[in-house]
Design brief:
- The two termini are 33 Å apart.
- This protein folds into two domains: 106 residues, no CATH class; 93 residues.
- It contains six helices and no strands.
- With 199 residues, the chain is an all-alpha fold.
Length: 199
């Protein structure tokens, strides 16, 4: 009995050390990522002011870098636990980012079309997160197969929306190829999941 308790304590210590090492590594990576983003922002601003005398084109990359940092930072520092936070940040900031970007480059379609595509994409990503939250009930490979299947109606919805906004065909041969590939990937995922459970 004492040996089992001792072994359990040792395993617990190992897990704690591993978690601490992962946390330290994530903090270092997040700092490096933040410094890199800040360096890029400063370089753009300095070059823009030196060439033009004021801030013009540099606002585009600066805005994009800040947006990318806000989305990526939670996942970098918290790992898998930060994915939901990153997705929440994407859901909140993607529309304001598109609005600002549209004004900076003076192309209204960036906001009008981009917002519709962004909303549909964010909803799809939340559905995928919900699917993978069931890993304990189904399995990673099965969830991957479900995700591939869900990508088919997502593709069709995107095509329908784009066809109404920019007169693109709803379905062409490349879409058919994409759907075929997604179905094949889904089938392979389900077969691998079945074979894994059978073993």
């Amino acid at each position: 009995m004492e040996n089992h308790e001792k072994k359990a304590d040792e395993n617990l210590i190992v897990l704690k050390r591993k978690a601490e090492n992962n946390t330290t590594k994530n903090v270092i990576i997040s700092i490096f990522f933040s410094v890199t983003c800040l360096t890029g922002i400063m370089a753009c601003l300095i070059c823009n002011v030196a060439i033009s005398g004021n801030l013009t084109w540099s606002l585009i990359p600066v805005t994009s870098v800040i947006f990318a940092w806000v989305i990526s930072f939670p996942s970098i520092i918290w790992g898998k636990r930060g994915i939901v936070v990153s997705l929440m940040s994407l859901s909140i900031f993607v529309v304001p980012y598109l609005f600002l970007l549209s004004n900076l480059i003076k192309v209204t379609e960036v906001f009008s079309i981009g917002t519709v595509m962004a909303v549909v994409s964010v909803v799809f990503l939340w559905i995928i997160v919900a699917v993978f939250s069931r890993v304990g009930k189904t399995g990673k490979l099965a969830n991957l197969g479900i995700s591939f299947l869900l990508a088919v109606p997502f593709l069709l919805i995107v095509n329908i929306l784009l066809s109404r906004m920019i007169a693109e065909p709803v379905f062409d041969r490349w879409d058919a190829l994409s759907v075929l590939i997604l179905l094949i990937l889904a089938l392979v995922s389900f077969i691998c999941d079945y074979a894994r459970k059978k073993d």
